[in-house]
Amino acid sequence: MPSLLASAGVTAPPTHPVDVLLILVRGDQVLLALRQGTGYADGEWNLPSGKLEVGEDAISAVIREAAEEIGIHLDQDEPRLVTTVHHQNWTGLGRIGLVFAVDHAPARHGHPTNAEPHKCAKLEWFPADTLPTNTYPYTAASIQAYRTGEHLMVSGWRETPPP
Hints:
Blueprint: H1 4-7, E1 18-26, E2 29-35, E3 45-46, E4 49-51, H2 58-70, E5 80-88, E6 94-103, H3 106-109, E7 120-127, H4 137-148, E8 152-155
Parallel strand pairs: 1-6, 5-8
Antiparallel strand pairs: 1-2, 1-4, 2-3, 2-7, 5-6
């Protein structure tokens, strides 16, 4: 007997990676990283972010990503979940993004540095309401949802995914 998924025309269950994204806030500005050398979205501004690792909780993941990508230290009680973004990228892959915000306190966190120069050309602060035109859409949606207080943002979905 065919499975429910097969009878519905679905050949495999969907895979939606879970990402953690950090909005590091300094006044009315947010920190972005310019991607380079990754082969994906190079030349676009992105939030410090990454995928959950096997067996890792979301808070530990955002703390790890902050240390790995921008060299700052966050305590377990600092990241606050501000929104969730369900994004479909240009390849048609859906992703779930848990977006956390932290108000930057240099004395406690340290100063952001480009800790992954092989993946990032530079870090820069931008006004949250005036992002660069080459901001990655997932990042732009995350910041927009944060600014407007939306609990869930659906971004990039099209009626027909690319082949």
